Amino acid sequence: MRKKAGWILGILFLGAIIWGSQKLSHVVLSSAVLHQREQEGEYCLVLDAGHGGQDGGKIGVHREIERDINLQIVRKIQEQLEKEKQGKIQVILTREDENGLAEDNVKDLKERVRLINETRPDLVVSIHQNSYTDERVKGAQVFYHTASTEGKKVAELMQTSLYTLDETNHRQAKENQTYYLLKKTEVPVIIVECGFLSNPDEAEKLSSENYQDQVAEAVTKGILNYFGKGEN
């Protein structure tokens, strides 16, 4: 009986060693990849278009669908980054069409987190649209995790860049520790609420290609400033 118990414990111990070595090699590999990016002047950026599939997100006063606006802006950011010849920025999209990453909302968020943590990008920018009961409320705002120093840094840079969209916008980058994407990821993540779909004027602008271009330009500038490639 003792021999059998010892044999079982031996297998469990060996399994723990193998599991631990796999975890360690994953960490070492990730660090090596990050170091290589720094040496070569490369950056990896994940652009996350919020919502998708059956989850349309916020619905605007003119029946705008947040899911679609998010993706349209993300694609414009991607295009603008590709036009910028400043350094190498690898761009990864969490979704490339109207579909989400899973049918269930919780599974969708978990899949986004998994993708981000496995990719280990230098920055994640998640694009969303806001809404409120008072239709007078408006203005873009950036959120970051309370405990993230880098998150705060990039959020403040991004918020400053977004002021170009509206001189009357006095919103500040805001910390948050409850948003799933912020608290479950292991890299700098910011959530950019581009405006309020509950505000008639802002909702109309956010649906227009011209204003989406302006939003994408402001977000792109914020990204480049964080990576040290912008004009500030």
Summarize the structure in words.
Helix 4 links the parallel strand 4 and strand 5. Helix 2 packs across helix 7 and helix 4 crosses helix 7. About 9% of the residues have low confidence. The protein is an alpha/beta fold and 232 residues long. The protein starts with a helix and ends in a 6-residue tail after the last helix. It is globular and about 45 Å long. The chain has a 6-stranded mixed sheet. It has 2 domains: 40 residues; 185 residues, Zn-dependent exopeptidases (Aminopeptidase, 3-Layer(aba) Sandwich), CATH 3.40.630. The protein has 7 helices and 6 strands. 36% of the residues are buried. Helices cover 50% and strands 16% of the residues. This is N-acetylmuramoyl-L-alanine amidase CwlD. One of its GO terms (molecular function) is N-acetylmuramoyl-L-alanine amidase activity.
